[in-house]
Amino acid sequence: MGRELTPEERRRKIDEIFGDVLPDTTKDEREPDPEQRDEDWYLRNKPPHHG
């Protein structure tokens, strides 16, 4: 067989095969996205024919 991989090497190999499926941080740990549209944005930009 070969030598055993370090945790970093193992993780890199798994990411190489499967890709990075999960982000490193969760949504609540990140800064708010300025492009993210909230309910207020939709209300301000509601077309007139939607009453």
From TrEMBL:
Where is region (Disordered) located?
A: 1-51
Q: Which superkingdom?
A: Bacteria
Q: Where is the composition biased (Basic and acidic residues)?
A: 1-16, 25-43
Q: What is this protein called?
A: Antitoxin VapB
